[in-house]
Amino acid sequence: MNATVGRPIAHDSALGHATGAARFADDLPEPPGLLHGALVLSPVAHGRLDALDIPDLPGVVRVIAAADIIGPNDISGSGKAGEPLLTDGVLRHHGQPIALVLAETRDAALRAAQAIKPAITPLPALLDPEEALAREDYLMPPQIITRGDVPEAFAAAPRIAEGRFQAGGQEHFYLESQIALAVPGEDGEIAVTSSTQHPTEVQHIVARILGCDYNRVPVTCRRMGGGFGGKESNASWIAAAAALGARLTGRPVKLRPPRKADMAATGKRHPFLFRWKASFDAAGRILALEATLAADGGHSLDLTPGVVFRALTHALNCYDVPAVRLTALALRTNTVSHTAFRGFGGPQGVLLMEDVIRGVARATGLPPETVRERNFAGGGNGTHTPYGQALEGDLIRRVWAECRDDARWDDRRAEIAAFNASHPYLRRGLGSFVLAFGISFGVRHLNQAGALVHVYADGSIRLNHGGTEMGQGLNVKIAQVVAETFGVPLDRVRITATSTAEVPNTSPTAASTGSDLNGWAAHLAATTIRTRMAEVAAALWDVPADAVCFAEDRAFVDRPGDNRAMGFGELAHRCWIERVSLSATGFYRTPDIHWDPVAMTGEPFFYFSYGASVAEVVVDTLTGEHRVLRADLVQDCGRSLNPAIDRGQIEGAFVQGMGWLTCEELVWDAEGRQRTLGPSTYKIPGSRDVPPSFNVRLLSDAPARSDTIFRSKAVGEPPLMLATAVWNALRDATGVERLDLPATPDRILRALRGSSRSQSGGITGSGDDLRRN
Ligand code: MTE
Ligand code: HPA
Ligand code: MOS
């Protein structure tokens, strides 16, 4: 019919992003009297703050410390975790905020923050997650999922394999670093502009720190220059610091930490340690699995419980193992508190079975792909996750079969073998991966959304919803949904900034649910208005309301031989004259999901997103350097709302996943100082790292539940995990047994040389004290 939904439509800000016309928080005109903030950060990983002497510094208006905080000094989402905004006297990680400097210029603020030298007594720091694991130093009790009789399964086991490995963290490296602007208004109101995925949490935490009601804190976000999970919780304390400054001085305050401070003070993807033991038969069927997944949570809880939950529920990925015992731990270390990052523990969780599959393949002499296929859920194997939710075995097999065909798997295996036999030191390798990723927030109450739609008397439409735009194309998708619902062209719909004053009590834009949740809410709001408009037209034409249809920018009577019709704008005007409301809210909550936290069973996900990938790499065995030469991806997006946007998400996520697994390495030194605080030492993938042959395909005729919005499926996070094929390809090329992540050139070289320190230790010589995560 109209088809705005399902069409490859450009991002609404594509031109604005490219030309610079799109305004980010730092581009807004600065209000008169603006003060600039800068943070004084802890120079130690653990210590006691003895004194904070403030020298007289040029341009400085005020320096704020914990004692100046009006409400509770707690920035945790729950408000109960006691995570301080500014140190309460104990320093728990390098880069922890100690004080906020406010000055007339940003330069003056930054210079002053550097000049302040707090008196600190250093304390012994717990830096190594292995040590935290040995000491059982946890941030929360272990989470355990079990199924079947595991001891019995091991006692009867035909064969047993074991393994251990680790995966590092990841810095978000959003191009726009964290920023907030707080402007004091009348009667104690503080208006906040924040680069945040979670305006409602910004509102809550600002209000807590200021000791005021939520209704005094309107929060706005037009767009972020990337979030990737890094602005789900961390944006809140940046905004709270700015708001506190604004309240205490009565002047507007902007806080935009430089990249280095942003990297030091905000959390990253959780590094993980893995241990496993599996029993299997000669055919490669895995019969029992016992595994521990230990996340380094850093010094405080933040979103770690949710990350650990997702790692645990994704540890078997799309595979069936009859008897399992999976234990997930949250280790406490004197490191920055790790947080949400695209995939939210899922990417770490799905690594487990990849290592098990390789271990079983090695022990049985079968190709890893055969072991993979024999252990897929469904098709004779079990059909349910160990926590009790059904997986669609057909889709798992379909994405894999199609991807394997796209990649010409068998031919290329032979080509690669021939290449390797002929080259003295380059080795090519082929790796695969298959994914089932659960869509919904692990926390039940976050699975809700609201929208506010106005139709004006000229038929133009204003759309507001609870989701935030971070580059992922959420706004254009929701605008497509609204245009489709009214049967009008997309340019009738005006996209507006997310605001807690327009749609309250929102969830973070996270867990890939942005378009699922807000799409439904906006559709429901638009449907309410359309129904009222249909009634006005029906009365005019003397037909039943359900005979009035909307398409091609018109309302018309949908009956053979009846040509009566009216422009959408004309009908809107008529509704106004007839005193009919053209404004409505929509509200949606995800049906059916449930979880029993005691039994650790339930159906926490509305549905699963499926995908498969094949990657080819070449490794220089003399240097350890490597490249991804080709990648073939098949991603299930249901009936995509916008295939152009979804393709961009798949490409970007894959390359971001490659970065995590191959080149992005966080290094802390023996004192717990981060040594990788900028692009010169922390390497994210660049345009030349994109595979030269990059074949991305959306699964065609993809089935989805009938009750997803226009039968679409989420896409934001799942394709990041498809990069796991690169890890497998590197192991295929090198033949090494254990390859910790990120698989940097030096780590590959050490693994190839079989060095005993290859997996845990430092680089060389003076670098030996560097702890790598
Ligand atoms: N894409 C861009 N360009 N920038 C981002 O920050 N964040 C990712 C993903 N895609 C991100 C992105 C993450 S972590 C999530 S959870 C989803 O987008 C959130 O948006 P969605 O729910 O609308 O997909
Ligand atoms: N994903 C991302 N963010 C979240 C989640 C999740 O599953 N749960 C709570 N915050
Ligand atoms: Mo995405 S990690 O859920 O913000």
Automatic annotation (TrEMBL):
Transmembrane segments: none annotated. It holds the Pfam family MoCoBD_1. The keyword Oxidoreductase applies. InterPro entries: Ald_Oxase/Xan_DH_a/b, Ald_Oxase/Xan_DH_a/b_sf, Ald_Oxase/xanthine_DH-like, AldOxase/xan_DH_MoCoBD1, AldOxase/xan_DH_MoCoBD2, AldOxase/xan_DH_Mopterin-bd_sf, Xanthine_DH_Mopterin-bd_su. Residues 19-124 form the Aldehyde oxidase/xanthine dehydrogenase a/b hammerhead domain. GO terms for molecular function: xanthine dehydrogenase activity. SUPFAM superfamilies: CO dehydrogenase molybdoprotein N-domain-like, Molybdenum cofactor-binding domain. SMART domains: Ald_Xan_dh_C. It is an enzyme of class 1 (oxidoreductase). Keywords: Molybdenum, Oxidoreductase. Its EC number is 1.17.1.4. Residues 752-773 are annotated as: Disordered. This is Xanthine dehydrogenase molybdopterin binding subunit. It comes from Roseomonas alba. The lineage of its organism: Bacteria, Pseudomonadati, Pseudomonadota, Alphaproteobacteria, Acetobacterales. The gene is xdhB.
